[in-house]
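Page 37, top half.
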Amino acid sequence: MKNSILLCLALAGALFGTNPIITTMYTADPSGHVWADGRFWLYPSHDRNDAQWWDMTDWHVFSSDDLVTWTDHGACLSLSDIPFAKSAAWAPDCAYRNGTYYFYFPVSSVSSNSNTDRIGVATSSNPYGPFTVVPTPLVSGEGAFDPCVFIDDDGQAYLYCGQNTAYVGKLKPSMTELDGPLQPIGGADGFFEGIWLHKRNGIYYLSYSMNGNIGYGMGTSPLGPFVYKGIVLTWTGTTTIHSSIVEYRGDWLMFYHNQALAGGNMFKRSVCADYLHYNSDGTMRQVVQTKAGIVAQPVPSRSRIRPNIRSKQSSTRKKDILRHASAHVTVFNICGTVVRKQSAEPQSATNLHSIPPGRYCVRVEERNRHDDAPVPVSPR
C-alpha cells in the first residue's frame, strides 16, 4: 500500500506547474489569450535582468498547450521598432480578427523614467509576431496607459485603458482606430491601473489594480457602468499589480505577477497563475496565491515528473473524498488522470458520489483556503 501511495503522489504531483510559471526571464503584466490553435498565449512585459527602474525595452510572447511547459517565442517587438517611442515598453495586450493579430502596447515619447503617453498598435499574421507597427499612435496623452482590448460576441471591439481614471472606447473594424473619443468608465471604484475586461454568462467583469490589490466590478454593458464588488486578488508582495482573467478548457484562471523568482525585486517581477472560482450569484471568489499553480492538461509524461513533491494532493479512499462536499475538489486516479471535478456548491456533491470504489488522489480547495501554502514573497 505504501508503494501505491507514493506512486500516486508522484504522478499527481507531475500534473502541477510551479509558480512563477516563467522562469527564464523576469516578466510582468500578463495578458492571456486562447486563439484558434487551442494553445494558451501569454503577452507579458519583460523586465530586464539589470533593471533599476521599469525601464523595459521589448516584449516577448510565450505559449503553452498544458499551462506548465512554456515556449518563449522571442521578442515580438522592441522600442527600436516604434517611431514614436523612446522608453517604457510596459503592459501590452493582443487581439485577433480576420486573420490578423493586433498587438497593443503603451510607450513613452520621453527618453527616461516617465509614464507612458502613447498607445500603439502593431499587426502580424502570426500570434508570436514579428509585428509591424502602425505609424500613428492609437491614443496619445490622457488615458495612454495599460491597454486592454475586448471583442464582444457581436463583433464590436473595445479599448480599455488609463491610470487613475479608467477609460473605454469603441474600436473601428480596422482595430487600429478609435470610433469616437475615450469615455470615463462609471463604477470603477478605486481604480489605479492594470485594467482588464472579461465576460461570463452575459455579465461583464471589469478588474483592475487598486491599493495594491485587484478589485473588480460587474455590469451588463461593456461600456459600463459597473458595480464594485470587492477584492479578487490581494497584495502579491511587490509594488505593482496587474492581472488578466481567462477561461481555458473549462477552468477560469487568473494570471498576475509577484517578485518571487530568484533575484527578483519591484523592477524584476515574475508571472504566476492560479485558479479563479465564481459564486452562484456570479461574483468572484478571492484567488488564493499558491506555489503549485495550475494543473497541466494533458497529463505530462514521466520525463517531466518533478522531485521533492510536497503534499499538494493526498491519496485517499472514496469515503474520505466525500467529506469535501463543500469544497472545490479535483480527483485523480493512480495514473494521474482527472476522473472528477467538483465546484464548492452544495448541489454538486453528488458528483463525488458517482466515483467508482477505489483509491484516488485528491486536490482540495476550501472556500477560504488552499492546501498549498501562499507564495513566499518579500516586501519592498
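Page 37, bottom half:
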Amino acid sequence: MTQETSRVQRWTTLVFFAVLCALLLTLGIPRVIYYFSYTAELGRERARQEMRLEALQQRAEMARKQLGTFPDLSSGYRLVAESVAASVVHINALQELQNAQARPRSSRSRDGQSLGSGVIVDTRGFILTNNHVIAGAPYIEVRLSDGRSVTQPRDEILVGADPMMDLALLQIDLESLVAVPFGNSDTMSVGDLVLAIGNPFALDQTVTAGIVSAIGRRDVVDIASYQNFIQTDAAINVGNSGGPLVNMRGELIGINTAIVGQAGGNVGIGFAIPSNMARFTFDQLLEKGRIVRGWLGVGWDGSSADAVVGSVIEYSPAADAGLRTADRILEFADELVGDWTDFRRIVATTPVGKTVPIVIMRESQRLTIMIKVGEYPTTELGFQVMELSEELAARLRYPPGTRGMLIQVFPRGRAEQAGLRTEDVVVQVGSDPVSDLASYLRAIRQVDLSGSVSLKVRYRDGSVRDVTIPSESERSNE
C-alpha cells in the first residue's frame, strides 16, 4: 500500500509540474518575447534619438562654421539700400500747381496734396507707383533722390493706370536715371529678408528692414480687385505707398501698397503687390497703352472660400462653354485653383483668345471643359470698366453710397474725345441704370456702339452729367 501511494504521489507531482510547465509556456513565453521585443524597440528608438541628436549637432556645427564666413548682415543691408536709393522717388499728387512751386522741399504739409512713393523701373523714365497715390490729382510732382524734380499735368506724365491692381505707370523726361531690376516674386518664401524704401510722412529715403511674413494674402484690404499680396513686417507707413520692396540682391519683388492698423500707422503688418503682377501691368501699359485681361463672365456664389460659380453672365465665354451655377472649379489652364480670388487672378493673366481646359466638379462628377478666354469687358467706346467698391469710392473721394462702373479711359479713344477721364463713374448707359458688371453688360447690348452713345457720369463733386460719346463716323471726320 505504501508503495502504491508513493507511485501516485510521484505521478501527481509529475502532472503538477507538467501543467505548471504548460502554463508557463502558454503565458510566460509571449511575455518573454514581448519583453525582449520591447527592449529591442527601446534600443532602436534610443539609436534613432542618438542619430537625430548627432544630425542636429552636425547641422549646428556647420551653421557655426558658415556664420564665421558669412558677411556682416548690416553690410548687406547697407549695400542693398545704396543700390536702390537712387531709384526711389517721392510723389506728390497735387490739386493745384502752385503747391509744388511755393512749398519748401522739407515741408511735410499735406494741404491739397497726397504724398506717396514710386520706383524707377526703366531708365527711359518709367516709374511704377500705386494708383491710389495719384487718384484724382490734376498735377503730379516727382522728386528724385538727387534733388531733381518734375511737375506736370496728370495727362502728360501718366502713361496709364490699372485701378484693378492699384498700380499706375508714370514717365518723366530726365537723363541719368537709375532703375531697379525686376525680381521674381514667385521665388520668395516666408522668412526671406526684405527692405522697404519710401517716403513715409514725407521723410525721404526712409529704409526699413524685415522679412516676408506670408505670401498669397488675399481679401485683406478692399483696395484692388486682384490680390495676391506679399505680407511683410518691414515698417510701412503713410507715404510708403508705391515704393519698392526689395530682396537682398537689390531686386524689386513688390510694390508697397497697404497696411493694417487701427491708427493708420505701422503695426508690423504691411502688404506689397508682387513684382510679377506689377510686371504684367508694366508690360501691358508699355506695349498696348491699356490693360488687357482674360475674362470668363462668372460670379462667385460666396457661400465658401472655394471657387464655386454663383452666376453666369449671358453671352459670356463661360456661358458659351456651358459652365453652370454650383460648378466648383478645381483647375484652370492646368493650374490648381485654391479659392475664388486665386481663380480670378489666373484667368486675368491668361492670354485673351486662348482656349484652355477648365476642370470642374458638377454633382459629384469631375468634368473637363474647354473654354476660350475672352477679354475683360471693353467696348468700342474707348474705356474699360470695373465695379466701384465702397472703399475704392472713399479713396477716390466719391460721395458715400456711390454705385456704378469705374472707367479706365484709353488714350486717343472716343471716350477721351468726349471728355471722359480715368476714374469717372458711369451710372447709366442709354436709358438703363448700371450698378454692377451684369447690368452694365445688359445695357451695353441695348445700344448701337458704332453710333453716338449717351451716358450719365458721376464725378467726385457729387454731380451727375450727361455725356455723349461721338459715333465712329463723327470721330473719323475730325
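Margin note: The longest helix spans residues 2-69.
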